[in-house]
Amino acid sequence: MEAWLSGTRAELDAAIAALADLGHVIQHGQRWPMGGVDAGRYRLYLRLAVTTRHHAAPGTGVGGALIDLTAARALRRPA
Buried b / exposed e across 38-75, counting CB within 10 Å, b at 16+? Predict the structure, then answer.
């Protein structure tokens, strides 16, 4: 799996940790600072080796919580 991620340092750290739980990080690119209205944010390339594994049945209470992106954006501090 390959992905370009963009966000603040904390957001990228959290995303990388969550994705690393799914598989093995093969390539972790350099953080590139973004400019303009995205100043204070970074982008990076991430490559993972992900294998299929058994997942808990829906409704069992096992798994991660959904993130309210609107609330998270409202709390985001400007760079």
Answer: eeebbbbebebeeeeeeeeeeeeeeeeeeeeeeeeeee
pTM over 0.85: no
Strands 2-7 and 23-28: unpaired
Q: Residue written as tokens 């829906």? A: 58
- How far apart CA 68 and CA 72 sit, in angstroms, is 6
First to last CA, the chain: 30
Euclidean distance between CA atoms 65 and 18, whole angstroms: 12
pLDDT digits (tens, 9 = 90+) for 1-12: 899 999 999 999
Please provide the size of the chain in residues. Answer: 79
Tokens, residue 71: 């609330």
CA distance 6 to 46: 11
